[in-house]
Amino acid sequence: MQRRSFLLGILTLVALAPIKVLAALWNRPAFEAVKIEDVTQHLNVSEEIPSSDILIVAPERAENGAVVQVEVRSNINGTEAIAILVENNPTPLIANFMFSHGAEPFVVTRIKMAETSDLKVVVKVGNQYFTHAKNITVLENGCG
Amino acid sequence: MDKSMKMRAQLKGDYTEVKVLMSHPMETGRRKNDFDQLVPAHFVQLLTATLNGQLVIEAQWGTGIAKNPYLTFRLKGAKLGDLVEVTWHDNLGETATQSIAVTQA
Asked: What is the ipTM of this complex?
């Protein structure tokens, strides 16, 4: 290989790297999936184990689906990630949080809900996936 | 677009609670404006948080996070004065970073 074209190639790679890294990090198939089974498949969830060690704090009834505050905590040792899904949303996967270096498996955030639906949480512990769900009634939809 | 975040990091006994309020439209790409035109998707896809430069939270978001995203997380082992930094990247290539020192609750 010519030295110049080799160097140019390296430079191009370096320049493209941040965009590629970002694109590689965002799980497009999972976020664009419209069926909840497809979301869990793209999150590599093999078997779902129901667990009462996952706590969901959210309103029973949400006045406005555009802003629904949810708190999720996992009491399962070795929790690496918490995914939040809303089954009846146009795209069910809301977020996937990964914890490391002393971050507790705990998160509070505000989500959109198109209609009354189960809120499902998937917790990753090594190769195992634990789940818990809570139904939230939505009085006014929040997906525009 | 105002990219500033409201941040607070408070030491509460054996953990530090970090609260972040971001400014972002979080458009799904399905909403129509007053002229019946679809508003293009514009949403945060990736959020990272570090404690003194070390990665603690890495989150991928879809369009289902509410407008002007809010987030609380908790860190073990942080000390007063430690620096918590939050960065987001959205689907249009925009990004914002802000940091705050841990204070006593």
From this structure: 0.96
